[in-house]
Amino acid sequence: MSEIQFKRHRRLRKSENLRSLVRETFIRKEDLIYPLFVVEGENIKNPVASMPGVFQISLDYLKTEIDEIVSLGIKSIILFGVPAEKDELGKEAYHDHGIVQRATRFVKEHHPEMVVIADTCLCQYTDHGHCGIVEDGKILNDPTLNLLAKTAISQAEAGADIIAPSNMMDGFVAAIRQGLDEAGFEDVPIMSYAVKYASSFYGPFRDAAHSSPQFGDRRTYQMDPSNRMEALREAQSDMEEGADFLIVKPALSYLDIIRDVKNEFNAPIVAYNVSGEYSMIKAAAANGWVNEKEMVMEKLLSMKRAGSDLIITYAAKDVARWLSE
Questions:
Q1: Angstrom distance (rounded) from CA 12 to CA 202
Q2: Prediction pTM value
Q3: CATH number of the domain to which 146 belongs
């Protein structure tokens, strides 16, 4: 009987150095964007109970935090503001002395090389918790665009390197691009939350940002998790309107969408490894059920392998430490 013919794929796996030689996907510190929650007041470092290792911090703690981030080799942060006061129009979002604007100036004063991305939305700042103007229980699209543009301009004036609008209003990229250009910020790029699903994975974030809607939900503007082709329509609109980056959020349950968007558009793709994805592993690791380092690294590798160029993740500091080991 003749010998069976088959391929010996294991030849390339027989040692760690050989596996490293043929490795296809990598995570670098430069790929990581670390989210920060900044709050009004002084001497505040509140742990977010549902997100172990994540804190709400006041500006007087910000330098220590940024110093640590820089020392770890992380080059980019995204700022989320938690204001002291809220109103129906979210005025603190676009106030010159809003918390994100003040935090941006602070970071740029102490670490001008740090890439500061400003989250551009209204939900943390409105008393109803929605991402736009509300009238008779309806979230109004077009009137909201003016406020988003004002917010983006205010953030750019404060020194933000990138504007990241997360509201999912129709036309938000076009309105913000026009506003930035007319204000003289034509060189400030837009990192659009182009594909943002109405996901159950956002709960811990809403604890941290105090952004839960006070009535209803966000399904009239965030996407249905059942839909795939809609993601490409959303991303195409944002690219046509002037987006420079495309975010897919969440990441782990939407790896197919990341790949679709990567295949379709010639732009940097950003995976948002959201709070629920982060907290599940933290909880399991705290109970000794999983190896946190191995699981986090495998999870982030899946996002890079699916096509993301950058990853927004609350695990960025842990990952940077592991990469240095």
A1: 40
A2: 0.93
A3: 3.20.20.70
SS3 194: strand
Domain that holds residue 233: 26-324
Query: Cα torsion at 301, 27, 50, 75 (round to 10°)?
Result: -160
- C-alpha separations of 252 from 168, 211, 233 in Å: 20, 22, 21
Number of domains in the chain: 1
Is 18 a domain residue? no
- Nearest to 192, CA basis, from 230, 124, 238: 238
Token pair for residue 143? 């009137």
Mean pLDDT of the chain: 92
Q: Does residue 12 sit within a domain?
A: no
* Residues acting as catalytic residues: 196, 249
As averages over each run of 10 residues, the pLDDT of the chain (325 residues) reads 84 93 95 96 92 94 96 97 85 89 96 96 82 82 92 97 92 96 98 94 73 67 92 97 97 97 97 95 96 97 98 97 95
Instruction: Give domain status of residue 19, yes or no.
Output: no
Q: Is 253 domain-assigned?
A: yes
